[in-house]
Design brief:
The chain is 34% helix and 22% strand. By secondary structure, the chain is α+β, with helices and mostly antiparallel strands. The strands form 2 sheets. A 6-stranded antiparallel sheet has the order 3-2-1-5-6-7, with helices on one face. It has a 4-stranded antiparallel sheet with strand order 4-8-9-10, with helices on one face. The radius of gyration is 26 Å and the shape is elongated.
């Protein structure tokens, strides 16, 4: 009887070789998964930035209609990459209605595809996008380090929409499909 108990005690646990094999497998799986996870993270940051910009445009448009006066979305610093704010147009001393953070690491403004809205997106009291005294259409494109792009198209009607500039038929012709979507 004693022999049976002592042999059971010896079979518990792992050998050093078994443990090294498991560690090697985990390391290999980790090396495969990390680049894919990084790409996923960058693409999620791109989707989040696109969603934030559309939210800012929608807020500006609805506030312009509600207040019956011009409301603008403008960059907070040197460009859109440093964040943006929604405020009453032409009133630089006014407190912004809402501010948005800078683009997160790995997401940049794609200047090769963007057109029209380099410094400001303004809505009149009827919700139409304007530039001075004329109606204005344009787009802003964002790009992740993965190469994936997303565009926000603002037609003259003012209602923003998102599209994939790399997919044919979905604003994939020229500069955001000439901002017509």
């Amino acid at each position: 009887m004693k022999l049976a108990l002592s042999s059971n005690l010896r079979t518990r646990g792992f050998t050093l070789i078994e443990m090294l094999v498991v560690i090697a497998l985990v390391a290999i799986l980790g090396a495969i998964a990390v680049p894919g996870f990084r790409d996923l993270l960058q693409n999620q940051r791109l989707a989040s930035a696109t969603s934030d910009f559309v939210a800012a445009l929608s807020l500006a448009r609805s506030e312009a209609i509600k207040r019956s006066q011009a409301v603008a979305v403008s960059p907070q610093g040197q460009g859109w990459a440093s964040g943006w704010k929604v405020q009453i147009a032409g009133d630089s001393a006014a407190q912004p209605l809402r501010t948005f953070d800078a683009l997160r690491g790995g997401v940049v403004v794609d200047t090769t595809l963007s057109n029209g809205f380099d410094t400001l997106v303004s809505y009149d009291g009827n919700g139409f996008s304007r530039a001075g005294n004329s109606y204005k259409a344009g787009c802003l494109a964002l790009k992740a380090e993965t190469g994936r792009r997303s565009a926000i198209v603002i037609p003259m009607s003012g209602r923003p929409k998102t599209c994939d500039p790399d997919r044919k038929g979905d604003c994939g012709l020229g500069k955001c499909n000439a901002a017509g979507g």
